Structure formats: structure tokens, C-alpha cells
Amino acid sequence: MDIFFTNSLTRKKEKFVPINDKKVNLFVCGPTVYDYSHLGHAKTYTQFDFIVRYLRYLGFDVFYLQNITDIDDKIITRANELNIPWSELTGKFEKLYVADMEKLNNTSVSKYARATDHIDLIVKQVKTLMEKSYAYKIDDGIYFEISKFPEYGKLSGRTELTEADSVSRIDENNQKRGWNDFCLWKFSKPGEPSWETDIGNGRPGWHIEDTAITEKFFGPQYDIHGGAVDLIIPHHEAEIAQMEAISGKAPLVRCWLHTAFLMVDGKKMSKSLGNFYTIDDVIKKGFDPLALRYLFLGAHYRDTLNFTWESIGAAQNGFERLKLQVAGLSSETSRTVLSEEKQKKVDEFRAGFMEALSDDMNTPRALAVLWEMLKSNIPSGDKYELAMSFDEILGLKLGEAKSIEIPGNVKDLMQKRERLRSEGKYEEADKIREKIQVLGFAVADKNT
């Protein structure tokens, strides 16, 4: 089956055709590991996990590469604030990031590649750009001269930055030849980590690590590059400029895919607004991390998603209902010969699910097909088989779902807790919640 993606480079929905038959090289910008993974990370990486799972389901051989930014201004600042070595900080948060991805069942990455493991390749690219007169040296580092690359802006359709862009890492220096020239190599400063190289002691700028890593694994051109929409400019524009200037080949990437923002209570997520939530914050509230995955299925990857405690509560309820439905089918998997009418329905459900995902990964429509199938009159065994097949892409672990009877004592405690909450006796209600958790049951509140 053909699959169509909306390509940010051409601004069109296009049939996806890999460079090399069924082999797909796919890269997504990974995290800067200086803090806990937040819900924006969760949305982007879960939605790309759906994409990779579906490509593999269709028979594509996907190598999914993700970088780990483990040297950066933010890392140095945070390590100094905590008075710990920068490598200790990045080691801790890289492990926590991978653990968070596993909780969300984002398991499709083939390789995580650290920036600091590729310093020699980064230096090689910087030297090539200098030799080709795309880069110049000033007092604090080596910069890419954007005016030398006329196609800068072809991905975003602009060269000016806006409030929505990821602009926190714009390199400021009044010696720059152009206001938006960006740093390739930062010369060492006292007390900062640096590497001794023949272009000067220092460390990489933000953009250069990605092209060094992708050139190593994929060469100068590859199939799909993904990331959040705020990375289009300057980050992804910089990647294009760097690699196409080095190789002389265009395009760097055949298909660019970008996920839309995650908002919280209708506003941009921000620590200053008090609406900044990590993946762990959601889990500590009693929500299943796979309920987050279910929530993300209900939004197209290119659509903004508004997170609220009510929305995750509704997602958890929907996910629990789905698991109960599937668990009820697992004991009724005996197969019967289908009538022509019911076989037609089975085929239509399978085709409808595939058509939804092949149409630019329309996961909300695919999820609707799953529910429609479960409510249909096709035999239970066929429902279960289809649900397991669909879950290879959805990744909700529906095969592990089990029917659970809530014991009477737990039901009594839940009723008592709800009564205490309605009376405003929250401390007493919290103690009841702890008793319920000791008995092995989680309680998730919608609006606390």
C-alpha cells in the first residue's frame, strides 16, 4: 500500500518513495539531556514512533536514528548551578530520557548517537565548510555565513525568526558578518568543557552535530527527517545549509515531517506560567503512561494538542475501556467460518485502518476504525485478531490487557474517598488513596 506524507519542504501531501527501494533512513532530532522529559517531548517522540511502526508494518526496512545532545550551553549552565560535572548531568538525564520513552512504549529507535562521540566528524565538517569559504573565524568561534548559501530559508519559506521559533540558541556576536550567521565551533572558555582539535580548542555548536551524525550513518542524503515544528528555523534550515554546502547535493532530505505544538490549558507550556509538566508528573498523578499514548493517538501529528488534566483523565478512561473490551475477547478466540457478509466487514475494517494511516498518518481516524470494529457484529476471534494486528502500530500493549474484577473492599474505599473529596476533606481522602494503592490499584483524578 502507498503511504502519503505532508512534506514540509514542498508543502504538499506526497506519495512517499524512499531513495533505495524499501530501505528507509529516518532521523529525528533528539533531546538535550539536561532536564526531565516534558510532555512536548512525549508528543513528538510518540507520534514519530507511530510513523516508524507503520512503515515497518508496511514492510519497509527502517533505520531510525536519533541524536543525543550531550554538550550545549544549557548543559554547562545547569551543571554549574548544581555544582556537578557536566558529564554526570548528561549521563543521568540520558538514562532518564530512555526510561521515559520505554514507559511510553516508544521502542522503535534503532540507534541513539551522542554528539560527544562524533567530535572528529564534526571537526571534519567544519574544516570542509571553511575550505569551501562557507565558514569564517572570529574571536569566539567559527561561523557559517548564510549569505553564501542562497537557498537558506527554502524549508520554512522565510529567513526572519518569529516568537514561535526555537531561538534560545541564537549565537550573539557583533563581529558576525550576518545577523543570522550561526556558530559551528565554539572556542574554549575557562571552566568549560572543550576538545583539542586542529581548528582550535572548543566544542560544537548546536546544528553541526546533526549533520555529522547523519552523514556518518546515512551519507549526504536520506529519506525522512523529523522534529517539532519550532525546529524548522533556524535549526533545520541550518542543517540543510551545512550539508548541502559540504556535499553539493540537494536535497539533504527527501521528506521533512514536523509535529505541531503541545499546549497546556490553551497556553504555551512554560515553567513561568506554572503549566510545565514532565512525563513523570503525569505518572505521579496516577495516570498510566500509555494513557498519554492513547491521548496522542487522538490528535493528528500536524495538529496542535491541548493538554489538560480533564483530557488525560478522559484518555485514561477511554484506554481502560479499550483494554477491557480487548481482554474480554482474548478468551473467545475460537474461529468460525465467516459468512460472506462478515468476511467483507473484516476486510473493510482492515482496509479502513490502513487507509487512515496511509493518508498522512491520520491516527484519529484509525482509532475510530478500531472502536467501530470492536462494536461491530463480527466474531470475537476476528475482533481480537484485528485488534492485535492494529496494535503493532498503536503500541498500546493490548495483548497484555486482562479482565480485572475490582474487589468489594476497594470499591468501598473508592466511594468513601469520593465522599471525602466532595466534602473538601482532601487530606483524609489522600490517606484513603494510599490504602487503595497499597492494595494494588491506581486512582487517577481528572482535575487535581
UniProtKB/TrEMBL annotation:
Cofactor section: Zn(2+)
GO molecular function, one term: metal ion binding
InterPro entries registered for this protein in UniProt: Cys-tRNA-ligase, Cys-tRNA-synt_Ia_DALR, Cys-tRNA/MSH_ligase, Rossmann-like_a/b/a_fold, tRNA-synt_1_cat_dom, tRNAsynth_Ia_anticodon-bd
Cysteinyl-tRNA synthetase class Ia DALR domain segment(s): 353-375
EC number(s) given by UniProt: 6.1.1.16
Binding site for ATP: 271
Keywords for the protein's UniProt record, in alphabetical order: Aminoacyl-tRNA synthetase, ATP-binding, Cytoplasm, Ligase, Metal-binding, Nucleotide-binding, Protein biosynthesis, Zinc
Subcellular location per the Swiss-Prot or TrEMBL entry: Cytoplasm
Motif placement: 'KMSKS' region: 268-272
Enzyme class (EC, first level): ligase
Catalytic activity: tRNA(Cys) + L-cysteine + ATP = L-cysteinyl-tRNA(Cys) + AMP + diphosphate
Domain tRNA synthetases class I catalytic residue range list: 16-316
GO cellular component annotations of the record: cytoplasm
Motif mapping: 'HIGH' region: 31-41
Entry's Gene Ontology BP terms: cysteinyl-tRNA aminoacylation
NCBIfam families associated with the record: cysS (TIGR00435)
Assembly and interaction partners: Monomer.
Entry similarity comment: Belongs to the class-I aminoacyl-tRNA synthetase family.
Family matches, as HAMAP family: Cys_tRNA_synth
Annotated protein name in UniProt: Cysteine--tRNA ligase
Protein encoded by which gene: cysS
